[in-house]
Target: Glycosyltransferase family 2 protein
Amino acid sequence: MNNIEIIIPTYNAGKKFDKLAGALLQQKNIVPRNIRIIDSSSADNTVNIAEQAGFQVQIIEKKEFGHGKTRNIAASQSRADYIVFLTQDAIPAAPDTIWKLCLPLIENSSIALTYGRQLPVSSIGILGNHARLFNYPAQSLLKTKKDIPRLGVKTIFCSDSFAAYNRRKLLESGNFPDVNFGEDTLIAAKFIKDGYAVYYNADACVYHAHSFTLSEEFKRSVVIGKLHHDYQSVFDSFGTVNGEGIKFVKSEIHTLIAHKCIKLLPIACIHNFVKYFGYRLGKSDVL
Model:
């Protein structure tokens, strides 16, 4: 059987981590020793929960963590054929979630990366959940270089909140760049340029959604804009992002009207303006 390792960076994961640990222990073809927690010196019960579950635990200093850097080191240290990256708040929706995510990698050697569907959670509300449904639809999609004219920057859209990699292909393509945001998108771009495929696997699902405050939305958008500024040549080779933003806004308005939540339209407009302003500010690199 092909070897799979699950890698989860953690920091003060809280009560939800106990639920994640339980879900992981139920996963088909996964044993606890093949689950590795890289913890940034949590002050809560995260490490204790992981150790009690039988997971491998690797503790690093908080200052040593970086989204790209930590995943780069973890991939280099792994000896698995396939590595799955999860965030500490992404909960597998079924006992075969991890196996389903990895299966396309095992069956199709042209695929370097698969990422799964992130399902909304009721506590987040309609605006937060719309983003999940918009970015993670019910239909799977295989994306290759020939899809760039049709999909544009969506060709390299993916998320390390729930993704699996062919480790050999990952290392051969240069591994994750040392960035604090967007390492998944940048390595996806490298895969596509190298002739590999990126597969969105809607059959493999986790529950994962966030509700951002205006301040959080702004800061996140600035970071996205900065990423697009710093790696402009990469993103330019896949087309502009403006069209996706317009599609998102139209979809959000339609969703609010369809669910008779018209009173939320002003709030949605404010959030979208803040995101756009933050993105443009980050992309201009004036901060």
User: Anything to note?
Assistant: Residues 214-284 form one domain. The chain has a mean pLDDT of 93. The chain has two domains: 4-207, 214-284.
